[in-house]
Amino acid sequence: MMNKLSIERSAYLITMFMLGSITLGFLISSLSDRFNRIHVITFCVFVGLLSSIYLPLAIYSYPQALFLLFLWGGVSGGIYASGLAKVGEIFRKEDQISANVAYSLMDCIGGVVGVFLMGFTMDMVGSDGPIYVIITAAIFYFIYMLSTYEIE
Predict the structure, then answer these.
(1) Closest CA to 85 of 25, 45, 145
(2) pTM: predicted TM-score of the whole model, two decimal places
(3) How many other β-carbons are positioned within 10 Å of the β-carbon of residue 102?
(4) What residues contact residue 97 under an 8 Å CB cut-off, 6+ apart?
(5) Domains along the chain?
(6) Cα–Cα dist 53/102, whole Å
(7) Which end of the chain is less crowded, N or C, counting CB atoms within 10 A of the terminal residue's CB?
């Protein structure tokens, strides 16, 4: 809304993100069943990084912003679903409940801390604060993914 969007248009942006998470996330997690999950997750992290960098520009073109947030939501959902599948692959059946709880808990903690940091930077730097937090988190996540990447 700080970028001169109406409440309705702002709500549609969030809706497109969630719609992408549900629809594309499902398709991406299906792809991770057929391909190496780590490669799929790394690709999704890279697309998420590009999306976070492009968002400040795309917000001024509403159709581009809708598409970008749909795509970004899709890769975010794909990361979560493919990550859960990877947890199921790594841990024994006896340990999967604990591992899934820990994975979901870390996702929730990241969501809470991320929203707090976005609000804090918004107070400190203005409307671009959330973008700085999102880009920084995406860069760190992508670096982490590359550092754990194994070439087969």
Answers:
(1) 25
(2) 0.80
(3) 13
(4) none
(5) 7-147 (1.20.1250.20)
(6) 29
(7) C
